[in-house]
Amino acid sequence: MARSLSYITSTQLLSLARNPRVAIVDVRDEERSYDPHIGGSLHFSSESFSQKLPDLVQAVSGKDTLVFHCALSKVRGPTCAQLFLDYLSESKEDTDVKNVLVLEKGFNGWQYAGKPVCTCTDSPCKGTCS
User: What is the value of pTM for the model shown?
Assistant: First the structure.
């Protein structure tokens, strides 16, 4: 199945975020350890993203939509999303993922828009923050 990369706004993501078939993938690097994050998001640092692709596929088992982001979603978020798509295409991994999206304006835009953030240090985040 051919999958393509699309973008999603913070308002659109907010309405999808509680859907159990949606996974949010934060690819920020060291800033994830001291900045807030989107509750329930998975952290796969862009620095080691390529090596962790099999782990990501396993972590998103049963999900049909993945939303990638970094701080601004200008480089790391879209690059990792494309790497994920390429990996699925090349490896022929059996996955339920149908939609791969990038959060417009990244985490900074999400936070600036007043969307909810989490400050927990759980890994992975359980999404119980408000």
Answer: 0.94
